[in-house]
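Transport permease protein (Streptomyces halstedii), 312 aa
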Amino acid sequence: MSGASPADDPSAGTGAGGRPHPGGDDRAPLRGEVRPGRSAVASSRSALAGLIRRDLAVLRKNFGEFVGRTVMQPFLLVFVFLYVFPSIGQGIGSGGGTAGESAFATVLVPGVVSIAIMFQGIQSVAIQMSQEFGFTREIEDRVQAPCPIWLVAVARVLSGAAQGLISAVIVFPIAAVVHAPGVHPQFSVHWWVVVTLIPLSCVAMTSLGLLLGTTFEPRNIGVMFGFVVLPLVFLGGTYYQWTKLAPVEVGGFHWLQTLVLLNPLIYITEGMRAGFTDLSHLPLYVVYPVLLGFCVLFLGLGLRNFRRRVLS
């Protein structure tokens, strides 16, 4: 009846299944109950923010381990190539003496930042996701969040991208200062490139991590590093400029310079050189759209695999 009061309604103050709520309307919603007027978009947005905050809280708790994992490989690279080699007289930079060593350091440092972003993206997403799909089945807790399944994967990609951004901020100063006396890398920071390219690179590499983590079984992680990660590193322009590969040819065909264009890391390293140095590099009007295309491709395939793995 239209004139019935809440006191006359036997369902007032009860929840799902007719269970009473102490305190009437001033109550917390029961598990599985949806408040009237709360849209699916608002619920998904809150769930996404909660998932990201959870990952960042875990990162804050284990920040020391994160820094050690992030710094170790880049530090060893620059320590060996830019400190040990020049100190013991082992030539780098085509044997060009101090000038050659400085030129090589200028090439290497942006490459070190690039592989730090790549490894962080793979470690924070691919390895973690393979574990969650493995014995612990932690992924089952995540997908119970009140949001679409794909949003759970997006939350992991975004939190991994935040970690990649932090790793770039940590690694560049270390890579820039660890070198032998007489070795002087030449840097010229172009901020508009740095502040746009690094976030895009982080999302692209965590999207790649999502694809790898949903493709490889936990028992095949070693295969992933051997057949995917290592080729990406050595053919990703970490130790050389793309523009310098032209002499590697067969019958006039610059095969290596063409082959490495299939590697997403080459666009990050070349973009980093454009952002941190004045060295010759792959044109930025190629770097940005291709890197964005890789990001869309990796994220799309990763989300498809993620949904299949969750529902299987």
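The mean pLDDT is 79. The chain has one domain: 40-311. ok done for today
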